Amino acid sequence: MATSTTNTTTITQVRYTTPKRRVFTLMTSLAMSIVIAPMGIGNAYAAGSVKEGSAKARACQVCHGKGGKSTKEAYPILAGQHAAYLRKQLQAFRAGTRKDPIMNGMAIELSDQDIEDLAAFFSSVE
Ligand code: HEC
Q: Residue 116: how many CA atoms within 13 Å on its side-chain side?
């Protein structure tokens, strides 16, 4: 589900600290972006797809219920929630600015595209 390409790039940037290597790293990142972009992963991502999101949402079902229609009080209802809100929460969980032991673990695995797709899907459920 998740693509860790962006993370790999970031780690490379942190590891090399000498100026010469920094230039090298920058060029590597650039090269990677050029290679990765046409594959539809990494930094380049398209608008959310309900279909893709539906498949990816299976990982959320055990807690949030089928289609995000949670029946358990501990788990928020995601069905019909606004896409912008879902996106913002998933980004916050991923960044660790919104803290929840379960959701931080779930969101760290999500790419930008995963978040777009999941937000599109859950917001589409009536
Ligand atoms: C193991 C259970 C579990 C799984 C699996 C899980 N979640 Fe959650 N999720 C939670 C809990 C618990 C909360 C409430 C966190 C809190 O209280 O802040 C939550 C909160 C959220 C919220 C915030 C809702 C709101 O109204 O603010 C979103 C969005 C969300 N989850 C999306 C997802 C998505 C997308 C997936 C699948 C990729 C997923 N969750 C998988 C347990 C889970």
A: 12
Rounded CA separation 69/76 (Å): 8
Q: Shortest CA distance to 53 belongs to which of 67, 40, 64?
A: 67
The binding-site residues of ligand 1, defined as CB within 6 angstroms of any ligand atom, are 59-60, 62-64, 74-76, 78, 86, 89-90, 100, 102-103, 106, 118
Alpha-carbon distance of 14 to 74, in angstroms, equals 38
Per-residue pLDDT of the chain (126 residues; tens, 9 = 90+): 554 455 544 444 555 555 666 666 666 565 555 554 444 444 456 799 999 999 999 999 999 999 999 999 999 999 999 999 999 999 999 999 999 999 999 999 999 999 999 999 999 999
In testing the pocket of ligand 1, which one of 71, 102, 122 has its CB within 8 Å of the most ligand atoms? Answer: 102
CA atoms within 13 A on the CB side of 118: 27
- Spatial separation of the C-alpha atoms in residues 24 and 18, rounded to whole Å: 10
